[in-house]
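hi! just following up on the protien thing from before. the input was this:
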Amino acid sequence: MAVAVAGPVLTFNPKQNEWTVFFKRLEQYFIAHGVTEEADKRAHLLYSLSEEAYILLENLCMP
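and the predicted 3d structure came back as:
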């Protein structure tokens, strides 16, 4: 089920953020906004990546 979410948007940029800190904050964001479905969590994670991080992930997953 889709969850309507409001609040600050987290963005992960590998040149500016540490992954472990970002991931912990993202987990708290999921709890605070009631995001429980894995598909919704995945969508939020992918949306929160900077363009550079998204391209890197895409290249690693689909070379």
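Residues 19-32 form the longest helix (14 residues).
Helices lie at 19-32, 38-48, 51-61.
cheers
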